Each structure stands twice: as structure tokens, then as C-alpha cells.
């Protein structure tokens, strides 16, 4: 990450500059998508004559159009502590942003439960769709698990297509394996 460092109304300090670069390198571990880091160290205009307060500001731009700004004020002799504090605050904000991104569930159509296995026979079964329809599938249609591992109640995603006798499911993928323990239904025999 490239650090843009600006000193205003204050002479450059090699030790302060080194500390800023160290802190910027540390903060990068919280989020590896930081596009830019601008740091300004300046003397406050209101205290120009008194030698009083200084301000340290960190402005981070993170991929996804996120901006994190952290600012700290301190007396000149406390500038190193202010630099550490401002970067710690920015680090907490970066960590929070990364946690929010990790907790976002990304929906992938192939993983959405589109129905539940409602009946199983020797080499075929039926799926009850979310809208209540019943769709046939054959054991050759299963792509995520052996047919013998299927159970009534498992959530599935599938591709629906027209079959000879109505809708049928192909590319059936188990997406919720918490189905019941009920086994296969036996094909009734005619007596």
C-alpha cells in the first residue's frame, strides 16, 4: 500500500514519518483491499501563536467505495502517541468493515433451496417445489451425492425441464442435507 504523507505548518520529522509508515503497514493486515492511505500531520490554525495543538488525520480508501477517516489531536510532544491512536482507531474500523463483508451471505442461484425431496423409490423420486408442485427426478439427475444417500426432507436445487410426462428435474443438487430419517418408499406391488 502506498502512503501519501503530508506535513502542514510543521517541519518534516524522519522519526514521525517512519512511525507513520510502520503503522500503515500494520493496518494493512486488517484489509488487503486498501486502495490508498493519506496521512496529514498539521499544526492547528487556531493555536499557531501558542504552539498548542496538532492534528493527525488518516484517510483510507477501500475497494468497494468505502472510506475510513480517523483523526486525533495532540500536543507536539504527544504526536507519536496520537499517530498510534489514530491508526488503532482506523484499524478497528477496517476490522469492522471486513467482518461486515464476511457476514454478508452471497446468494448463488445454484445453492438456493428450490424444493424438498418428498418421495424416494428404487432409482427415482419426487421433489415438492416451493410453490407446491411435484417434479419427477431420476437417480442419474443427482450431481451432489450418491442416490443412496438421499433422504425425504432434504432441500435441493435443480434445473427444471420438460419431460415426456411433464416437468422433470435435472442437475439435482442437495443444498440442505438435514432431511428426515425416513427411508425409501417401497413400490407397491399389485396383488
Automatic annotation (TrEMBL):
Residues 182-191 have a biased composition (Basic and acidic residues). It comes from the Bacteria. InterPro entries: CSD, CSP_DNA-bd, NA-bd_OB-fold, RHF-like, RHF/RaiA. One of its GO terms (cellular component) is cytosol. Residues 112-174 form the CSD domain. GO terms for molecular function: nucleic acid binding. SUPFAM superfamilies: Nucleic acid-binding proteins, Ribosome binding protein Y (YfiA homologue). Residues 159-191 are annotated as: Disordered. This is Cold shock protein. It comes from Sorangium cellulosum (strain So ce56) (Polyangium cellulosum (strain So ce56)).
